[in-house]
From TrEMBL:
Domain of life: Bacteria
GO MF term set: isomerase activity
Keyword vocabulary terms for this entry: Isomerase
Natural source organism: Devosia subaequoris
Protein name listed in UniProt: 2-hydroxychromene-2-carboxylate isomerase
Pfam families according to UniProt: DUF3572
Length: 92
């Protein structure tokens, strides 16, 4: 994704990055599943849902080591990630 596209990172794309990172790091995937109370079947069924997307983004936002690893591996900045998180969590 070109840098200009990353400045407008959307929720779905960011959640996909999070899920991809977890898929490549089974120990982190297990931690997420335990945190979210998901079985493998429940995780598969939830893929693409708003609830899972928001849960993935919240999980990474609250776990700085994997947030930084995701950003380094994906070529995005923590600030770009947190802007998406903020859009999900702002109170109006």
């Amino acid at each position: 994704m070109p840098a200009t596209d990353r400045s407008a990172l959307n929720i779905s794309a960011l959640a996909d990055m999070c899920l991809g990172y977890l898929a490549e790091n089974p120990e982190e995937l297990l931690g997420f599943m335990q945190h979210a109370g998901l079985t493998p079947d429940a995780l598969r069924a939830a893929i693409g849902s708003d609830r899972l997307q928001h849960g993935l983004i919240d999980y990474f936002a609250s776990n700085e080591p994997i947030l930084l690893a995701l950003c380094a591996n994906s070529g995005i900045t923590p600030e770009q990630f947190m802007r998406v998180w903020y859009r999900l969590n702002r109170v109006e």
